[in-house]
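With this grant's support, we have settled on a layout for protein records. A representative record follows, to show the layout.
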Amino acid sequence: MADPRIIAVDLDDKTIIWRNADVEQERRIAIFDLLEGNHFRPERDYPEGYAGPFRIALRVEEGRLAIDILSEDEQRLETLILGLGRFRRPIKDYFAICDNYYQAIRQATPQQIETVDMARRGIHNDAAELLKERLQGKIDVDFDTARRLFTLICVLHIRG
C-alpha cells in the first residue's frame, strides 16, 4: 500500500559549515513541520512496488543538490541530483531577507516586522514553486513540502 511521505530527514553536516541560533531554529522547525505533514511521491517505480514511506538525505556536492531516497528500512532506492544554478538567486535573496527579518524582530516596530515577513514569505513561496517545477517528472511534492525542503536546501548553503 502506498504511503507517499517522508518519515525522516538527514542533512549532511559536513556541508553545513556555520550555524547560529536562528538557523538552528529554522532547521528544527522545517524538519518538524515536514515530518508532521508532507506529500513526497517519487515517480520512478521501485523494486517490489515500494511506494513509501521514505527517508531522505540531503547534501550539496559540486554545486548540485543530491537527494538520497531510502526506504523505511534504510535501503537506498535512488539518488536524485538537481542542478542548483536556478536556485542561486532565490537562496541569496532568502538569506538577505532573513537577515533583515531577524534584525527587525530584535529592534523594529510590529508593522516593520510584518512588512519584512511578507517579503520573506513571498521569496520563500516563489522558491517553493521553482523547486516543485524542478522536481516535476521526478518527485511529486505538495507546496508545503516544497517550502520546507527549500528551507533545508538553504541551511545546506550557509557559509559563515
About this structure: The radius of gyration is 16 Å. The longest strand covers residues 54-61.
